[in-house]
Specification:
This protein is of the alpha/beta class. The protein has helices at about 1-30, 65-80, 105-110, 125-130, 130-140, 175, 195-200; strands spanning about 35-45, 55-60, 85-90, 115-120, 145, 150-155, 155-165, 185-190, 205-210, 220, 225, 240-245, 245-250, 270-275, 290-295. A seven-stranded mixed beta sheet has the order 5-4-3-2-14-1-15, covered by helices on one side. Strands 6-7-8-9-13-12 form a six-stranded mixed beta sheet. About 45% of the residues are buried.
């Protein structure tokens, strides 16, 4: 018995130390290890003037959580360095109250792109008070689209940016969002919950849906995937998808809700470059090309 005890004691100690280190990493390191994911998406009907058009997509800032509020200047700097043509933010600026969100207004105002900064509201923005959240972010110069669209013009060529209301607490209406949008112009649709793609793909005008909401599951185990996912985020959890003839990108987001824990699912800003060309290859799979990932770690 004594021999077994002395043999197993070091192993037990190593396992314990490993669990402590893993816990520290998941709570303190990965949640602030921001990455940029750069992708290329071929769009068959992309107008020539929008060849190489760059969209910076971020989501789930959750600025009511002080950790994420402190990260906002870093996020703004990273996006500025990418020089996007347009910035799309797919909801959840807040968590459960406006509070510290107002403290991030100055940093939100640092987000700039030639064709503007556009946003939708997420379910947590409704928890915090949709009207109050919208007022704060619009005062920072961000345009909120709630079942609305706008035109992005390049001479005679046109691209449409649209947004639907939150599926869980709002009243999403794709028909209203695209009412008056031309049938020959690609639509970039912002929808907070990714499972809305099953509705959006029915409209041939929508070339790309951008979503967040899931945080990628926050904890993803190799070979298993996400351990916990929110309602309307179970079908499309993270990354690039093809649904019908529509592309979908689900970002892991830059923040989390109150549980600031991540493992194998780093916070992310996606930069998507649009190219003219066929969207599907011979195997009928989505052609997303990842150029590279850059890492910026901040303590």
């Amino acid at each position: 018995m004594k021999l077994t005890y002395w043999l197993t004691r070091p192993i037990t100690g190593l396992i314990g130390a490993g669990l402590v280190a893993l816990n520290w990493y998941a709570w303190r390191i990965e949640p602030i290890s921001l990455k940029i994911t750069r992708l290329i998406l071929p769009v068959p009907n992309l107008p020539p003037a929008f060849e190489g058009y760059r969209i910076a997509h971020l989501s789930d800032l959750h600025l009511s959580v002080s950790l994420h509020l402190r990260q906002l200047p870093i996020i703004a700097k990273m996006i500025t360095q990418e020089q996007p043509d347009l910035i799309a933010i797919t909801g959840d600026f807040a968590t459960a109250g406006v509070g510290e969100l107002e403290g991030g207004q100055t940093d939100l105002a640092q987000l700039h792109a030639p064709d503007g900064v556009w946003a939708i509201l997420g379910n947590h923005d409704y928890y915090a008070g949709a009207s109050a959240v919208q007022a704060v972010i619009e005062d920072a110069g961000i345009v909120v689209l709630r079942n609305q669209h706008r035109f992005i013009q390049r001479g005679a060529d046109c691209l449409v940016i649209a947004g639907v209301d939150d599926m869980l607490w709002g009243v999403p209406n794709l028909g209203a969002a695209l009412d008056g949008a031309p049938h020959d112009a690609p639509v970039i649709l912002m929808a907070h919950e990714p499972d809305y793609a099953r509705i959006a793909q029915a409209d041939p005008r929508v070339s790309l849906q951008l979503s967040g909401h899931t945080h990628g599951g926050q904890i993803r185990l190799p070979g298993i995937g996400a351990l916990l996912l929110p309602k309307l985020g179970h079908v499309y959890t993270l990354g690039a998808y093809r649904i019908g003839q529509m592309a979908l990108y689900v970002t892991s987001g830059t923040g989390t809700a109150n549980k600031t824990i991540r493992f194998n699912c780093r916070p992310e800003i996606a930069v998507i470059t649009l190219k003219r060309g066929e969207r599907w290859n011979k195997e009928d799979q989505l052609i997303w090309k990842a150029e590279r990932n850059d890492t910026l770690f901040q303590s």
